[in-house]
Amino acid sequence: MLGKLGSFKFHIESYTCDFTEKATLSGIGGYILDTASRHAEERGFGYEHISKDNVAWVLSRLSIKMDSYPAFNRTIRIETWVEGVEKFFTRRCFCIYDEDDTVLGYARTIWAAINIETRRPIDIPAWRPDLAEYVMPEKECPIEKFAKIPPIEGIEPSMGYSVRYSDIDINRHMNSIKYIEHIVNVFDLAQFRDKIIHRFDIIYLAEGVFGDKLKLYKRDISDDESLIDTKKGGDSICRGRIIWSNM
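Structure (tokenized):
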């Protein structure tokens, strides 16, 4: 049995950076999801293993808290561990380090296991009781747990888009990182010159599929906090919260 804690390195390439020469939020999100996939695959509950059971992992919630972002051409290390396994969800945590072992940030995720054909959640402990062997409840993840993100009503959308080929992932729905990319696009470029995204929360509520016409609504709570609601028709498919801090 491999150890409970996984640790993986990533080199910050130019295509994951923006004009500040730092990794973007979506770039960090991609590294986080890759870390989760590699940890699960090595331990026998990744995509290649569970697809044989007609099951897929689906990201339900993601929170990222960054004190600073890694620069282009640096190498980061991401640790991950399973915090808990419940009936329909697993909770996974992450710690992100710069190449000098400085902690850059933390993340939390919640995953559901669904039947690929019915798209319904399955009973995880009944399906894979061995997952309990990898739980590390004693390891601290110092990022606040998920808070409710309310819907946005009564305002005009900030932008819209249609789900296209490049948005679709291996499970044939909209890639989790694409939601993040579209969310940050509702902000003006000047916002990213002076501030960084310190805390990001997203709740995935429904699947986006090819051809869906989506609209994003943004409500500013303060100068440093905004809510974003992505809707298909009148129904939310995901909601996000961004908290900014000065560079």
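The chain has two domains: 1-146, 147-247. Strands lie at 6-11, 55-66, 75-85, 89-97, 103-115, 159-162, 195-204, 213-222, 225-232, 235-246.
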